[in-house]
Amino acid sequence: MLSASPACLPPLAAAATRVAAPRLGVGVGVRQLSTSHAHPQLMPAPKDFNRTPDEIVAELNKHIIAQDDAKRSLAIALRDRWRRQSLQNDDLRKEVTPNNILLIGPSGCGKTELAKRLAAFAGAPFVKVVATRYTEVGFVGDDTVSMVHELAEQSYMDEKRRMKDLVMDQAKTRAKNELIKAIMKNPLSDTWTESLISEYLDDGRLNEMEVELDAELLTRDEPQKSPLADIFGNMAGGPGGGMGGGRPGGISAVPIGVSVQGPNASDINSKLEDLFGTGGRKSKKKGEKKKVKVAEARPLLEDHYANELINEEDLTENARVAAEQRGIIFIDEFDKLITDKQENEGGYKGKRKGVQKELLTLMEGTTVSTKIGRLRTDHVLFVASGAFTQSKPTDIMPELQGRLPIRCELKPLTEADFIKILKETRYNLLMQQEALLATEGVSLKFSDDGINEIAKIAHTLNTETANVGARRLKTVMAKLLEDLKFDAHKMTGKTVEVTADMVKEKLATMTKQSDLSKYII
Ligand SMILES: Nc1ncnc2c1ncn2[C@@H]1O[C@H](COP(=O)(O)OP(=O)(O)OP(=O)(O)O)[C@@H](O)[C@H]1O
Ligand SMILES: [Mg+2]
């Protein structure tokens, strides 16, 4: 028998009331269910990153082996940002620009990984671009600005996720109330009360039950490319927009109207909406109903209400400030922009020079009109990276060199480093494989001599064929475990130990044919 629960349902929300969000750059703007019950989490969070350099290095050490110089420089760059933001004198603060960084080192030694981990740790909007993209045939100049559009988009998505987290408790309550309302319309038993349904919803008993809900409430909040995105992207790059005339970057999760300002903006918006539809989640017809299982409906409803509780204007502004003050743009293959002195002027050479000049403009500081507003690039941290095997950093345009004052040389990884990468990094490759096979009840173990052998083979392959750095470990591991992974489902309950002999044997069949690289790219 099911028993009624005394638990009361939270009252359905009254009219949503806007709570003013102080503009602290990382402040939070959300709609509250009730101003009298202000949620403590909704207070502006001073999320400014204030970790010390040694804390930053310690964090990087969890994921990246060796490369101490680069870790130090990146930690200083991040700390300098915090120092700058702590400056009281506004004018002085404006003058302090970041010391952009040039990472030099062979393939697969951790350049990109370092920058990614740093950005994740700092909660900074981060984008990675490849410099050669801008020199490709058919690429129109000035488009380097698209990296700023991408940063804006990333920042918007990060901020949205953060703000959604803050309102999630309220959104869950609303979603649950909506489900209760729907179930009460057609209860399976006369004895069901709201509080009983609430209890059943909590313990998952109603997961398979079908409910009828407004289709509008069930649309997934996925960033979608709207036809309007292009229009607004272009409009935003209009006169006075600095370098904003570039192509609008990719998908648009940004609401309509963000980029269109002025007296006729809403008029333009509604006309364009009539023409194209919104392309987003509100395209469902009003009143349309849909039958769904409770378990499927719940996360969609929660997402819907979380979106509703977020104030779009504050979200956009927070995202813009975060991108401007904390954004990191990582430019890979920077060395490919260097021109050869023997090369003829014009053609590719001209293009590469052109891209260097455009990057200089971005690094010197300019305004780009993005979908989240006008974004200054002065304080964005640029991290450029390249192998510089065919060229030297001194071949970069002198002015651009000046904008990359910090140079870090990353070392090629040794066999001993490979062992550490395998054993000591967080969620390392060994742990990953063990966990994957454990899902099928196979217990995988790596002995120390087995690990040493993997590192040795990976290192030998790098020396004898192309040096792809630590990436080699992944390909060696894939080959080594290929048979096991194919058959694991038939091996439940078994233990497999990877020893040096096993590694040799598994890879020997191939090494016998003298060239291992034929089989392991
Ligand atoms: N020092 C390191 N410590 C731990 N793992 C590393 C290290 N270097 C590389 N790796 C691993 O190898 C992968 C490739 O590294 P990464 O992308 O940083 O190479 P890269 O230096 O940027 O090379 P490329 O010049 O080819 O872009 C990473 O995802 C990471 O798993
Ligand atoms: Mg890289």
TrEMBL record:
Any one annotated GO CC term: HslUV protease complex
Gene Ontology terms, MF aspect: ATP binding; ATP hydrolysis activity
UniProtKB keywords: ATP-binding, Nucleotide-binding
Region called Disordered, residue ranges: 271-291
Coiled coil: none
Domain AAA+ ATPase residues, every copy: 97-414
Pfam families, sorted: AAA_2, AAA_5
Keyword Nucleotide-binding in annotation: yes
Domain of life: Eukaryota
Example GO BP: proteolysis involved in protein catabolic process
Residue stretches of biased makeup (Basic residues): 281-291
Family annotation (SMART domains): AAA, ClpB_D2-small
Residue ranges annotated for the Clp ATPase C-terminal domain, each copy included: 413-507
This protein's name: AAA+ ATPase domain-containing protein
Species lineage: Eukaryota, Sar, Alveolata, Colpodellida, Vitrellaceae
